[in-house]
Each structure stands twice: as structure tokens, then as C-alpha cells.
């Protein structure tokens, strides 16, 4: 991109200029009775946070500008002719809902045709999932016939988690393929998009990775439908801004991207970081690092904001969203170690820094609020009369109302401006407007979404602050499978989880009301979110309310109004799916057909390193019919050892 | 897969780099000043 440098300089200038202007105003307000240390802290925190929201505001402005002016956001050579390249579609899974995984694979296969090879790369540690996956795979193979190249591989140990899973694929089968497309257990891509991506890779040999941003789709809960709406309406402006500024210095978001296998194999072997988790050990959020390593090696990393046909499902409830955020937070904070690593390109460092900041901004905001509240509570008004010598003199009354109003307005513009710009960009296209239910529906939905996001913000802020604090204190987390089904959350669970938020909200409210009643109203929007945390989370988790909102034409997205073939097919398959009996590890022992399949798939896996005595005792217990007390590990060990299974 | 080296920078290295930048900045700017004087 020839003019990328001026774009970036202009962006930097605008972010800095607007931040300097706001900080100057703030300093003017704070300094009228001299600076205290508290006020200096407020100013520094305000400066950081304002620059942070200014950076996303200007990103949206650039994105909207690029959209309005129809700028080509993917300046790559177009694909030409039929591709001779070999492409593998990988779906790494880890104890995921088996029906959904295989419905998704089948839907993508039906859309993409037989040109692609599919690899279901299982890291499942739950033996019931493992057996069910094998049976589902066999069923799918039988249904689709020989033209379908769909492979299943189970790793006995999930070393290196998802990155290790992909690495294992590369080491075993990577040489066979030019490109690989990574899917998540809940993501889908259309055949058309896959073919386009392959064509683009063919035509642009310097490109190592093209990310196809996924649209959030397919859920029914109110929370998820609001997320889907906001990603569909605000996402295009955001991704346009990113693509416009990053050019070939793009990022990788872990799935729904095509990767040049040999570039990946040469440059993306991740090291273990020295030290203990959470900062040392395996790199958790591997995607950003892989993109940074590709850039370091001189390869191009692109994003295709307008390619379409790339989907994923959002978490169904705020609780699930926060559980996922806990992992992402830890992964991103670990990047603190890498953000200054040698040799990375500056844009890669910025991607890492922005990932870190998206979580660290929460405790900073919290600190700003706490220090401000303390400052307000200890505010002593200037006495109405003071003395010069013996003569009383009236001081000039000083009002900072004007500066404060300007500051508040500026902050509101930074926060809500991107939403307005995005709605504007959407309404400009009649087709996109219709796909979101029409002008009225878009405006009303955007209003509700803004209200909802405003109420959610303080809850998420408190939670993120806790995540950052607990991670910095060295409390590491595991990497559990995500909940990927709609569920109305039980009140008891939500009340236990969000009682702390509510109590903090009430306590701060009482303090403010008692000691700084003048400032109370300013904090009301924040406090309201905390007071309402429990009902908000319960109500928004409801699939019924989500569907009622849809009936009212609220939060409509194109996949709901026009439908999407691949998505509809995946859902239909999942709904009509019949589980292969009660898929349980016992099946391997009881059903000869299941055992043969399992043994055949186990043939290439090395025998587990285990105490022979332990295996013997497990076999004996099976012979006595005493498997009810088998733990998960017992089953996994037994199912991994083909010799034991053959002996039984 | 070829394992990449990623040298995580320690706080000490970051401070040292900043210090070096501080020390070397005048030296880097010096020729311009000298040239201007000569002119």
C-alpha cells in the first residue's frame, strides 16, 4: 500500500492532538487550587484512558471514511483461473459438543465441495467425547462417500493446547498442503469464500495469511443477539479502519483465516517462555504471536474485511462471555513479555499492546473512578471570604462548568461517535439497511444496544479489573471448553456471581450520596449498571426474550433476515442430529464394531507411557464388570492402550 | 515446525535501551549542529 505511511501519521496525529486537547482542558479544571498528588494521578490516568478511547474513535472515523469513499481495503492481485493448490480445512476441537462439530464440518463440506481436505483435530480429554467423535466421523464418512476427504485424528495428550494441535498437524501432514484454513468448533465458512481465499493466496505469493473477519451469528439469547447486531452494524467500520491502517501488517484472530503452510511451518514454531505461568510457559494467545512472527520473517499478513461468508457464534450469556474473557485476558497479559521482544515489526507490537490495553484499561478506569471519588469527598470549597491583611476580600467566583461540559461531551463523542458513524455508514446502503430490518429497526436497535452496552460496561470493567489483578497475583487459569449452547441462566448462579458487583455499586452509591451528593448524578449511569447487574445478566441470557426481540424486529442481522445457506444447513443438521446411542466409553468394550473402529484409529498412536500394574488392574476391573467407578483418567488410559483393549 | 526465538525483554533491558537512546540522542544530533555552525 503506497500511501499507508501518511495514513498512519495522520491517525497518530489525530489521536495525540485530541488527547492533548482533552488533557489540557482537564488540567485547567484541576489546577485552580493548585495540583495535589491525587489530582496529578487523576490527570495521568485520564490522559491514558482518553488516548485509548480516542484511538478507537479515530479508527472508526478512518473506517467510515474508507467505507464512504469506497476505498479498496484489500489491495491484492485478484485471483485468476482455477487453483491447483491443495488446501486443508482444519477444525481443532477440545471436548466440544460433538453434534455441532460434525454438523458444521458437513455443512462446510457441502458448501465447499470435494476440492478441500478436512481434518478434525481432536484434543478431547473426555473419553465419552473421544468415542462419540470417532463414531460421528465414521457416520459422516459413510454418509458422504469416498469423494469426501474427511480425516479424524485424536491426540493422546493435548501438549501446547490449540497451537500444539495445529503444530502436530503441520508436522504430520503439513507437507501435503499449500494452504490451511483454520476453523473453530463454532465457526463456519462458505465454499465461495474458501475458494476466493485460495485464489488470493495463489495470486499473491508474498501473503502468508489472510484473515476473513467472522460475523457473529446463529444464537437466540437476548445477550447474543445484541452482540450479533453490534458486530454486524459496528464491525464493518471497525474492520475497515483496521484494514485501512494496517495494510500488510495485519493480525491473526485464531480462526477463519487461510495460512500458507510452509511459511507457517518455518516461522511459527512457538517457543516456551522462560518462567512459570501465568507469564511464562506455553504461549496462550498464540494467534497474535504467529502473525507477528510471520511479519518478522517478511511475510505479508492481510485482513479481508469485505469477503463475507465467514461466521462464528458469540457466547450465549454475559457469564460465558466473561469466562472466555478470563482466558483471553491471561493470554493477552502474557504478551507483556513479548511486546518488546527483539525483531518484531512496530505494527505487530501495536497489535499486542492494544490487546493488552483492552484489558488493562479496566483497572485504570477503576482507579480513575476511585481516586476521583476520594477527591470529591475530600473537596473543601474555598471559603466565601478571605483576608488580605486585615481587610476581608471577596474572591472571584471560579466556575469550571464550561470546561467540564466540553470534556464530558468530548468523552461522549469518543464513546458513542463510532456507533453513530457505523449506523450512518450502514444506512447509506439500502441493501444493508434492509438486511438489518429497515431504517427504523436499525435506529431503535442501536439505541437499545447503546443502553445495554452502557449498563454492561461497569460490570465488565469490575470483572476485567479482577481478572487483571488476579493474573498479576499469579493465579493461573485452565483452558476449559466453552459453553456453546443457548441457556437461560439460573438466578441462583447469577446472584452468587454478581452479588459482589451489586454490593460494590450500592456501597459506592451510599458513600457518594452521603459525602458528595453534588457528584452523585454524574455517577448514576455507572452505578445503575452495577445495581442492575443480576437482573440484567439473567434477563439477557433468555433465549425466549431474544426471540421475542426478533419478532419485534429488534437486533436483526442479515443471516436472520436473508438467511445463510451454510448456517441454515449446519443448524438443521445439528437439530435433526441423532446421537450415536448414549456415546460412552463403555461402548468400546461392549460393541465389537465400536471397538474395531477405535482400535483401527488407535493403530498409529504410540502406546501410553503407563504403569503396567495400573493397566492390569484396570483390565481386571473390566473383567469383573466393575467399571462404574472408573474415573475419566482411568477410561482415557484404558482406551489409549490398544494391547489392553485387544486382551479384553 | 521450527521453534522461533522470542527473546522476552526484561525490565532491565527496556531501561537500558531508553538510557542508550537518551545518551545517544545528543551525539546523533551533534553533526547537524556542527554543520549549521560551519555554514
How would you describe this structure to a colleague?
The complex is a heterodimer of chains A (648) and B (39). Chain A has 648 residues and is α/β, with parallel strands linked by helices. Helices cover 60% and strands 8% of the residues of chain A. Chain A contains 25 helices and twelve strands. Chain A has helices at 4-30, 37-68, 98-112, 127-144, 161-173, 191-203, 222-246, 261-267, 286-296, 318-334, 346-377, 401-427, 430-435, 439-472, 491-515, 520-531, 533-540, 543-551, 558-561, 565-575, 586-590, 592-602, 612-623, 632-640, 642-647, and strands at residues 87-93, 116-122, 150-154, 179-182, 187-189, 207-211, 215-216, 257-260, 300-303, 310-312, 386-388, 391-393. Chain A has a seven-stranded mixed sheet with strand order 3-2-1-4-8-6-9, with helices on both faces. In chain A, strands 5-10-7 form a three-stranded mixed sheet. A two-stranded antiparallel ribbon of chain A has the order 11-12. In chain A, strand 2 (116-122), helix 4 (127-144) and strand 3 form a beta-alpha-beta unit. Chain A is globular and about 105 Å long. Chain A starts with a helix and ends with a helix. Chain B starts with 10 loop residues before the first helix and ends with a helix. Helices cover 72% and strands 0% of the residues of chain B. The mean pLDDT of chain B is 69. Chain B is mainly α and 39 residues long. Chain B has one helix and no strands. Chain B is elongated. Chain A binds chain B through residues 167, 170-171, 265-271, 273-274, 289, 293, 337-338, 340-342, and chain B through 1-9, 13-14.
Oligomer: heterodimer
Global outline of chain B: elongated
Which residue ranges of chain A are poorly predicted, with pLDDT under 50 across at least 5 consecutive positions?
none
Specify which chain pair forms the largest interface. A-B, 19 and 11 residues
| Number of β-strand runs of chain A | 12
For the CA atoms, what is the radius of gyration of chain A?
A: 28 Å
Number of strands of chain B: 0
List low-confidence stretches of chain B: none
Strands side by side in the biggest sheet of chain A: 3-2-1-4-8-6-9
